[in-house]
Amino acid sequence: MAQTGEVKFSFALKGKNMAIVRGCNLPDDLYYHVDSNVWARLEADGVVTVGMTSCACTLAGQLVAATPKKVGKAVEQKQTICTVESGKWVGPVKTPVSGQLVAINEAAIERPALVNEDPYGQGWLAKIQPSRWEAEQASLVTGAEIATAFEAKMNADGFGGC
Questions:
Q1: Other CB atoms within 10 A of residue 29 CB
Q2: Is residue 147, in this structure, part of any structural domain at all?
Q3: pLDDT reported for residue 144
Q4: Residue 22 located in a structural domain
Q5: pLDDT tens per residue, range 54-101
Q6: CATH code, domain with 118
Q7: Rounded CA separation 6/27 (Å)
């Protein structure tokens, strides 16, 4: 586990660069809503894939249930798109972008542990057709800013790391 204040960069996760903050992997090609501990990936077709960060997975513990909102629902940035449950916690997964929910990850709903095992890959939770991507992406953190933003959040929250 990385010590407080220790930020490392490594080349991992299918060859993608990522920040590692206190043992938590944070791929730098994603967009993060740091306060909500969620990530967004803009796909080639314009849809945004959304999931929980490795930090969120550690905080929640091993997930045992995931209950998404219904496909077709309109959502605003920071609204709940899924409720997840572990043995010690029940809480919301908030969307980093506004738009319409166009897909849910049935595999993650059927086997919620998949979110813990592969939060940035097969453990994604929802896909959203964004309505204000250009405006809202400016409120998300990406690239070189990720490590500093998550280090500050971890300090503020008293979170020791993954």
A1: 15
A2: no
A3: 87
A4: no
A5: 999 999 999 999 999 999 999 999 999 999 999 988 999 999 999 999
A6: 2.40.50.100
A7: 17
Residue 132 tokens read as 């204000």
Domain span at residue 131? 30-139
Tens digits of residue pLDDT in 5-57: 444 433 344 556 888 999 999 999 999 999 999 999 999 999 999 999 999 99
Instruction: Give residue 61's region: left, alpha or beta (phi > 0; psi -120 to 50).
Output: left
β-strands 38-42, 48-52 pairing: antiparallel
Residue 9 maps to a domain: no
| CA atoms of 125 and 51, how far apart (whole Å) | 5
How many CB atoms are located within 10 Å of the residue 6 CB? 13
Number of domains in the chain: 1
What whole-number distance in Å separates Cα of residue 49 and Cα of residue 129? 9
C-alpha neighbours within 13 Å on the C-beta side of residue 4: 9
Size of the chain in residues:
162
The answer to the question of residue 4 being in a domain is no
Handedness of CA 15, 18, 21, 24 (dihedral sign): negative
Looking at residue 27, its amino acid is P
CB burial of 78-93 (b: ≥16 within 10 Å; e: otherwise) equals beebbebbbeeeeeeb
Contact assessment for residue 25 and residue 45, using Cβ atoms and an 8 Å cutoff = no
